[in-house]
Amino acid sequence: MNSFDRVKMAENIKGLRRTFVILYLLAIAVTLPFSHFNVSFSVALGGAIALGNFVYLERFLGKIFATQISPPVAQGVTIFLFIFRFALIAVLIHQFTVAGKIHFPALLAGLSITFIAIMTWHGMSLLKQAPVAHKHG
Fold first, then answer.
1. Taking Cα atoms as reference points, which of 16, 46, 19, 44 lies closest to residue 30?
2. pLDDT digits (tens, 9 = 90+) for 113-124
3. Which residues of 47-60 are buried (b: 16+ CB within 10 A; e: fewer)?
4. Where are the alpha helices (DSSP H) in the chain?
5. What angle do CA 106, 24, 40 make, to 5 degrees?
């Protein structure tokens, strides 16, 4: 990958991350005045988990591709960190569920912000690339 591609990829990731954060904050802001605390908290928790996973994946994959790590080592580290990360998330969600703080549809909505952000960002990038029709006369 040449330096131009790396710069463009970094700009794309930055734009996607920005879209993600904006939609995440918007989702929380929409739920605050209209919902019970558990709904807003669950949207925030789902979004935080999704955003954390996104940033982790971005940085981890960047380190894997930037260094010359042997494939077996990279695979082992990836599997270990995947299991550890999701076990930690499971414990966190379990503890909040036991405490009665989780509203599962809102948690799923917060986790879905990743998909919505990717689709929104991609749609915006397509609109930026679309040729503008000009009227003559």
1. 44
2. 889 988 998 888
3. bbbbbeebeeeeeb
4. 3-34, 37-66, 71-98, 104-111, 113-129
5. 35
- Which residue, chain included where needed, has tokens 């605050």? 32
Residue 133 lies in a domain: no
- Quick check: 90 pLDDT over 80? yes
Q: Are 100 and 25 in contact (CB under 8 A)?
A: no
Overall domain count for the chain: 1
- Amino acid residing at 118: I
Rounded Cα distance, 39 and 32, in Å: 8
Flag whether 47 is in a domain. yes
pTM assigned to the model: 0.79
Maximum Cα–Cα distance across the chain: 68
Question: Residue 21: inside a domain, yes or no?
Answer: yes
